[in-house]
Design a protein that fits this description.
With about 130 residues, the chain is α+β, with helices and mostly antiparallel strands. The protein has one domain (about 1-115). It is built from 2 helices and 5 strands. The chain has helices spanning about 60-65, 70-115; strands at about 5-15, 15-25, 30-35, 40-45, 45. Strands 1, 2, 3, 4 and 5 form a 5-stranded antiparallel β-sheet that branches. A hairpin with a 4-residue loop joins strand 2 and strand 3. The longest helix is centred in the last third of the chain and has 47 residues, at about 70-115. About 10% of the residues are buried.
Amino acid sequence: MTVSYLSFRVPYSANRDCVIIIKPQKEAYQAVCVDAATRRTIGSPSLQRDSGGGRPQVSATEVITMIGSYRLASAAVDFEADELADRSRRISSQLRSRQRREETACRSSRHISAADPRRSLTQYRLPK
């Protein structure tokens, strides 16, 4: 028996795509729907073989219907929430890093000006 996989990419929400892979199992075929960006599985319904025992003729819409709109919406919300949390952590880290650099620069300039208040800051050389 030849092992054949069928895969296609379809949108399942406003800004998310899924990859559907139809692969043979012992008794039936399995349609695995995976989020295209995260590669996390959304659902994997079983598909009966066709009358000749071959791969079933199924469309992406039918697979998505088998998974269910509630599950698809739930997965989209979970994935978007995870991505938003990642972006928040990344931005927060960048802001903390920028703030540390600015505080270091301020401390250095205060130290220089405190050393000799009669000289301007431009007369001092900062270490590289």
